[in-house]
Amino acid sequence: MNIRGRDFKLHKQTDDKGSAMVVVIIAMAFIGILASVLMYMSLLNYQMKANNLQAKDNFYSAETVLDEIRVHMEEQVSASLGDAYTQILVNYDDTSVSEKESKLRYAFLSSMQKAYQCSDTASLNYYDLKKLFDSLSPEVKENTVLQTGDGVNSYTIRMVDGAEQMTGTNGSGDAVSDLPKGQLTLFTDGLSFQKLKVTYTNDNGYVSVIQTDIRVKMPDMSFAQAVSLPPLTGMSLVAQKNIQVVAESGKLSDAKIAGSFYADKVLVGNEDDTNSANVTLTLAEPTGKENDDKRMVAATELYLGKGAKLESDSYGELWAGKITMHGAATSTGSANMNFKGNDVYVAGDLRIDGANNNFTAGSLVDENYSGQYIGFGTGENGDSSAIVVNGTGTDIDLSGLINLTLAGNTYIATKTAKDNLTEADGNLNGSASDRKDILMGQSIAVKSDQLAYLVPADLVKQRSNPVTKEQADTMGNTAVDFNAASSMLGGNSLASYGITKFITNGSSDSQGVRTFYKRLNSKITIVYYYVSFDSSTQAGREAANRYFQDYYKVNKSTMDAYASIYTDGIKIRNQSAGAYIMHLAGNVVMADKDQTTGSYSSNLQNATLGSDQSNIGYKQQLAADDSKFKALCKKLIDGYEQLTPSEKADTANVYSNLVNTDAITSFTGVVRGAGLVVDTEKYFGSSAYPDCKAVIVYGDYTYPEVGHADFKKGIIIATGDVKIQDGKEFNGVILAGGDILLGQNVKVTPDKEAVLRALTYSKEVTGSGGGQKEYHVVDFLIGGEGYLQNNNKTYLNSDINLGDLIVYENWQKQ
């Protein structure tokens, strides 16, 4: 029998039954898991969207609370604006553009303050939280909580069981019974309801919190008047050089000027040290002919001589490059300048020298404050408006103002130091470009305040300031420790104010320690170390302010003792007193001296420089004041944009822009060439009105002239000086290419009717060749024919969107 091997290939078992089922089961499981994940993600997304929708709904519900408050506030803005505008309309044609704007601002802000005033306080600087809560609809009230604070206490108002519940707590958490109120801050361009907190809870328990300030802005009302020529008929005097009031020795003089006037300088008395004790200048309108639109302009300076007086009524605006008071003429006398409620604008400083000066601006009549003192020079364009007291026995009273603005700082005058100690004061080996005045952190300063800006002695290596020149040479630039704490500065170092180094000769640095040399005699020279802040930067000016605040806190008694020698009082209302606008680039020490006991009390009013820098409206107003001053100095009009390029020229002024000197020269030449008597031909008049004339003079003129005693009113135009003799009155306008000298007890008043009549006069002159030429008075004025046109005024309408006046600031959502 045959034997064969086993065929394993033929007999192997391949068992894969059920594998497809396993694959299907795995795939189904994976798909199920994926579907579950997708369903879960969809559910989660839905829940997130639902929550987000609920949060947005609740957020917008909280905004609804603010919207309802805002709608009610718009109604109050409308009412306050209507009341304010109604007050303007009472004397609309008799007030200037700036006066209209000022009155509108005061009336509007005052009305808004009173509308939200809290009944348990007389202060207008708080708003009643309940009045805001009561402006809400009943359904919104139920879900709303309002909170605020007055700077000391916190207040809450809500609905509980259908009734309003008001609570208050102090800083310690103890309950207070005061009515709920928040801080209402007044700005030049509006007011702000501070730190209003809104908490809204909807029916599902979702809570949304919003905190914000509500700012109400001043409406932009345009009162611009369309004019092409200055108001000649409202002017009394225009001098290309000076207007000066004088009196003979031993004779009293009270000169009176009404209406608008212009001069490069206005001098009351004498500019030198000559006694001016008998001289008084009164700026006042005639009864029944008051003109609140008048502009009184001293382009360079308003100067009060020794012992002189200046009194002003409450009408119009006075503009000056600077104001200088020269002190009393005798130890028992005084020098006085009193503005009784009109507006005073100054590009530079009010400088008070000599002894016993009294300066007053503003008034309080029937519990109403009036008048503004606006020092609009910031220093950026050269002028820095401040008040500097170098004289003793000075009294400054600004407590009656509705607006006090001092946009500049005071300075210590070290810029005049001489090279190489050839004079008493010096900046050793320095050049003129190195020398700068020392910025003070004050807008009103007395002479003794400069002691505050000496480097504290405990920071000087020699432990004294000043030191001798030999000591200074030995110490060199190690004389001052910039990082050590000074007890004189409340524990602060110089470095904390940005004073970290010496300013060496030839250095361009503006901040640091400066040296000033004082030669006492041929053998002894002492050296002062001053802290010098950069006046060109915001940081430098704020550092100077903070430095003075810290120094004054520690050294108040010493500084007051020195200051009492120079001032009997610096009276300024606190900013919280009534609807009062205050802007101070530097600090002010308010002081009062008891004349009976001699006791001296003072307190520090901090600068508002920090907040003012973010106040766009305030900056724009300063720029507008600067522009207006330029326009007034060129043509006695308010709008600089109305001037032509030639009228804006550096050499141009009011006289050159009003008077056609070429026509006067030509007229005089023709008269002289024809052999006529110039003194006769220069008069233009009418037999029907013998007292009303126009006189055109090439050269000087004295009023009244011999042979023309009947000339009482009209127009005087002279290319030289004009003198008004003692005791004389003139009604009309005088235009002089030189000085105008007012003698004893002179009175000059505008006369619209007389000026317009004189402008119509003309005469024929037969020249040397036999030909005749007719001359008209209007020909001697640039654009003269325009003065005889109807005085049409165009007023621009203002479209005001109340919603744009109310904005939110410092918005926070929790």
Explain what this protein looks like in three dimensions.
- This protein is an alpha/beta fold and 814 residues long.
- 24% of the residues lie in helices and 31% in strands.
- The chain contains 13 helices and 47 strands.
- The strands form 5 sheets. The protein has a 30-stranded mixed β-sheet that branches.
- Strand 6 (190-201) and strand 7 form a beta hairpin.
- Helix 2 crosses helix 3 (97-115).
- Residues 1-12 and 791-797 have low confidence and may be disordered.
Summed up, what is this model?
The protein is of the alpha/beta class.
- Which bin fits the share of residues in helices? 10-25%
| Count of alpha and pi helical runs | 13
Largest sheet: 30 strands, mixed
N→C terminal distance:
105 Å
Class from secondary-structure proportions: alpha/beta
The rough form would be described as globular
Number of strands: 47
Rg on CA atoms, Å:
38 Å
Low-confidence stretches: 1-12, 791-797
Strand content: 25-35%
| Mean pLDDT level | 87
Topology:
Blueprint: H1 8-11, H2 19-90, H3 97-115, E1 126-128, H4 129-133, H5 138-141, E2 144-149, E3 154-160, E4 163-169, E5 181-187, E6 190-201, E7 207-217, E8 235-245, E9 253-257, E10 260-268, E11 279-283, E12 295-304, E13 309-312, E14 317-320, E15 323-325, E16 335-339, E17 343-346, E18 350-352, E19 357-365, E20 368-370, E21 372-375, E22 387-389, E23 394-400, E24 403-406, E25 411-412, E26 418-419, E27 425-427, E28 438-439, E29 444-446, E30 467-468, H6 469-475, E31 512-519, E32 525-532, H7 538-566, E33 567-571, E34 581-584, E35 588-593, E36 600-605, H8 609-612, H9 616-635, H10 654-658, H11 661-673, H12 678-681, E37 683-686, E38 689-697, E39 701-703, E40 713-718, E41 722-724, E42 729-736, E43 740-742, E44 747-749, H13 752-759, E45 762-766, E46 772-776, E47 806-813
Parallel strand pairs: 8-10, 8-42, 8-43, 9-11, 9-44, 10-12, 11-13, 12-14, 12-15, 13-16, 14-17, 15-18, 16-19, 17-21, 18-22, 19-23, 21-24, 22-29, 23-33, 24-34, 26-27, 38-40, 39-41, 40-42, 41-43, 42-44
Antiparallel strand pairs: 1-5, 2-3, 2-6, 3-4, 5-6, 6-7, 7-47, 19-20, 25-28, 27-31, 30-32, 31-32, 33-35, 35-36, 37-38, 45-46
Helix pairs in contact: 2-3
